[in-house]
Amino acid sequence: MKKLKWGIMGNASIAKRAFIPGVRESELCVVEAIASREESKAKMVAEQFGISKSFGSYEDLLEDPSIDAVYIPLPNHLHKEWTIKAAKAGKHILCEKPIALNVKEAEEMAEACAKAGVKLAEAFMYRHHPRYQMLKEIISSGEIGDIRVIRGAFTFNNSANMENIRFKREWGGGSIYDVGCYPINAARYLLEREPEAVTVHALLSPQHDYVDMMASGLVEFPESVALIFDCGMWAANRSFMEIVGTNGRIDLPSGFGTRPEPITNLFVTIGGERKEIEVPHVNHYAIQADNFARSVLHGEPLSFEPSDFISNMRVLEACIKSANERTRVVL
């Protein structure tokens, strides 16, 4: 069976903790190489995970003809540069979220990949887990009635780690980019519509280069439906989604599955009766990699086309503008 050969650009924690183990569980993928700006670090990770090749520069990885696709977990401000370079090298690209710093960058990346004839996808792995399709099926069944509001939260506390790249404003730091993007992206996915306006209030911390260390927001969707979200890097650990309808609600106690704890089941409450719905316990990083591989190897459509990440970036950009200017932003 032909497999998609991946090269990893950088030795980011997410690559070592999640992406590489996910690919190892996949059916259609293999990690062929890893690159770092320090060759010794790339070699160490390659030895740790049994990766056959390591490079001391990203350019060397892109020049390797055996590499079919690259995974980019670099800091946010480097996504555009290395996506475009990878596209020109003929590599397909899975780029970590958020895809870019703004809509303009996202559009330029999509255009460069279309011109080069390569696939480009944003690495929102949670959407590839079957439980989100199950969520959509429950919603479309009408079991909980018409959707009135969605609540989502994603917070953690690493505020003491002052060297963290998430605390560099010019690098695309801040909690909206890092974790607020999840409930926003999930609400768009579940509602299958785009927001009309956003209002966000944020803690812009002077000791963390004025990035939003905490943000709380209202995202207005058509038909008077709203997402109420909060996100933060200076708060207790939380990760959940709640979908509230006219007749009931759905709860996801672990909303996005980015941490080591197991992904939880769904809970549906109607008329005061709460039932648990079991979900498959599968690795959504592996599913994400295989879905991408099917598109590259077999010509299947991408699970989410570039128009989706451009639309998501438009909402994130509006949220950051609202937080900085303390105003409601109409989309």
Automatic annotation (TrEMBL):
What range(s) does the Gfo/Idh/MocA-like oxidoreductase N-terminal domain occupy? 5-122
Q: Name one GO molecular function term.
A: nucleotide binding
Matches recorded under SUPFAM superfamilies: Glyceraldehyde-3-phosphate dehydrogenase-like, C-terminal domain, NAD(P)-binding Rossmann-fold domains
Residue span, GFO/IDH/MocA-like oxidoreductase domain: 132-250
Tell me which UniProt keywords the record has, alphabetically: Oxidoreductase
Q: Which PANTHER family match?
A: OXIDOREDUCTASES (PTHR22604), TRANS-1,2-DIHYDROBENZENE-1,2-DIOL DEHYDROGENASE (PTHR22604:SF105)
Q: Of which family is this protein a member?
A: Belongs to the Gfo/Idh/MocA family.
This protein's name = Gfo/Idh/MocA family oxidoreductase
